[in-house]
């Protein structure tokens, strides 16, 4: 059995803004006792705090990870079966669309990368495409709950704290 991470990804934050927002969200998590103030030296994760729910205390690799840098947050071992066009909703096979070139361009710093749909020819931002079977996200800030599934109350509070343009990604390794 591998590790699971439930990511909350802020898609459009600049790298400078990501550093500031990562610090702010970490302080919020500490203030609400969701995590403790210091990361675990063995894992680098912020362990669950006294106010945390939804984790198994027997799992050593469990806690919150902050990634304040340009990252492709993908579904891990879930793979990639296709991409759904945000305009016409048709699913394109991975072989029918240059998604890997677009992802590489985004990772290299081109925030305005688009993909053209083979079915309707409409070009849409990479961020807007639905990667299947599990969502992917592209952002400069990720808050990952490693081997810990936040309950609905924490999820909603975290989404409110992170603001607009957040995508959730479930990764499994």
What this model shows, in words?
The protein has helices spanning 15-31, 99-107, 152-162; strands spanning 4-10, 63-67, 71-73, 82-84, 91-93, 114-116, 123-125, 130-132, 137-139, 141-146, 166-172. Helix content is 21%, strand content 27%. The model has no long low-confidence stretch (mean pLDDT 93). It has two domains: 20-69 and 140-172, no CATH class; 82-132, no CATH class. The chain has a four-stranded antiparallel β-sheet with strand order 2-10-1-11. A three-stranded antiparallel β-sheet has the order 5-4-8, with no helix packed on it. A two-stranded antiparallel sheet has the order 3-9. It has 173 residues and is α+β, with helices and mostly antiparallel strands. It has three helices and eleven strands; from the N terminus they run E-H-E-E-E-E-H-E-E-E-E-E-H-E. The longest helix is centred in the N-terminal third of the chain and has 17 residues, at 15-31.
Task: Write a short abstract of this structure.
By secondary structure, the protein is an alpha+beta fold.
